[in-house]
Design a protein that fits this description.
Number of strands of chain A: 11
Largest sheet of chain A: 6 strands, mixed
Oligomer: heterodimer
Radius of gyration of chain A: 13 Å
Order of helices and strands of chain B: EEEEEEEEEEE
Number of helices of chain A: 0
Structural class of chain A: mainly beta
Radius of gyration of chain B: 13 Å
Strand content of chain A: over 45%
Strand content of chain B: over 45%
Order of helices and strands of chain A: EEEEEEEEEEE
Chain lengths: ~110, ~120
C-alpha cells in the first residue's frame, strides 16, 4: 500500500512560470513533510520541509502549502528556471525518523 | 562538511552472485539509513541504524540482504544471492539524530545492475 501519492509524474513549464507538485498521505503518524530535489546521478537533497502545525512555508522561490484536514501538501516553485529541471520527491516522516517517499515528479523548465 | 560517501559508484553482476556496498556517513551523525531506489520510483527504506543498533529493518529482504554498522560509523550492505529485481540505486543517508525533523543527507548512491 503506497502511503504517499505524488502527482503529476512529469511536468513541463516555461521559464518564469509556476511549477506545482502535489502529494497526499494516509498515515496520521507522519509529522514532518520534506521535499527533495534530485539531479541525475546524484542523491536526493533536502529542499524545504514543513510541520503539520503550519499551513505554509516559504523559502525563496519555493513554497510548501499544507492542508492537514485533507492530508495533502504541495510544492510551488515560483519563477521556474531551467536550473530547476530535476526530479522532485515529497516525503512524509514519522517522529521516529522513518521516511516514506512519493514516486517523484520530473520537472522540465523550458527556456 | 564532507558529505556521505558511498562506494562503488557502479556495479554490474550476474544473478546469484553476491555484492557489497559501503557507506561512510557524515561525521557525528548517529542515524544511518539504506534506501533502495528503483528506476522511476522514490527511495524505499531498507534499514535504519541508530549508532550501531538496528532501529527498523522491517522492509529488508532478510533472506538475501544483510547490513551492519561497525562501531556506529561506517556501514556495509550486502546482497547474496542477487536477483534481477535487485537492479536499482542503493542510497545511503545519515542524519544527526533519528528524530523526524533531523535532516537527511544522502550520498550519490551505488547503481547496481544484475544481469
Amino acid at each position: 500500500q503506497q502511503q504517499v501519492k505524488q502527482s503529476p509524474q512529469s511536468l513541463i513549464v516555461q521559464k518564469g512560470g509556476i511549477s506545482i507538485i502535489n502529494c497526499a498521505y494516509e498515515n496520521t503518524a507522519f509529522d514532518y513533510f520534506p521535499w527533495y530535489q534530485q539531479f541525475p546521478g546524484k542523491g536526493p537533497a533536502l529542499l524545504i520541509a514543513i510541520r503539520p502545525d503550519v499551513s505554509e512555508k516559504k523559502e525563496g522561490r519555493f513554497t510548501i502549502s499544507f492542508n492537514k484536514s485533507a492530508k495533502q501538501f504541495s510544492l510551488h516553485i515560483m519563477d521556474s528556471q531551467p536550473g530547476d529541471s530535476a526530479t522532485y520527491f515529497c516525503a512524509a516522516r514519522t517522529n521516529a525518523g522513518k521516511s516514506t517517499f512519493g514516486d517523484g515528479t520530473t520537472l522540465t523548465v523550458k527556456p | 562538511e564532507a558529505g556521505v560517501a558511498q562506494s562503488p559508484r557502479y556495479k554490474i553482476i550476474e544473478k546469484r552472485q553476491s555484492v557489497a556496498f559501503w557507506c561512510n556517513p557524515i561525521s557525528g551523525h548517529a542515524t544511518l539509513y539504506w534506501y533502495q531506489q528503483i528506476l522511476g520510483q522514490g527511495p524505499k527504506l531498507l534499514i535504519q541504524f541508530q549508532n550501531n543498533g538496528v532501529v527498523d529493518d522491517s522492509q529488508l529482504p532478510k533472506d538475501r540482504f544483510s547490513a551492519e554498522r561497525l562501531k556506529g560509523v561506517d556501514s556495509t550492505l550486502k546482497i547474496q544471492p542477487a536477483k534481477l529485481e535487485d537492479s536499482a540505486v542503493y542510497l545511503c543517508a545519515s542524519s544527526p539524530s533519528g528524530q523526524g525533523s533531523s535532516p537527511l543527507h544522502f550520498g550519490n548512491g551505488t547503481r547496481l545492475t544484475v544481469t
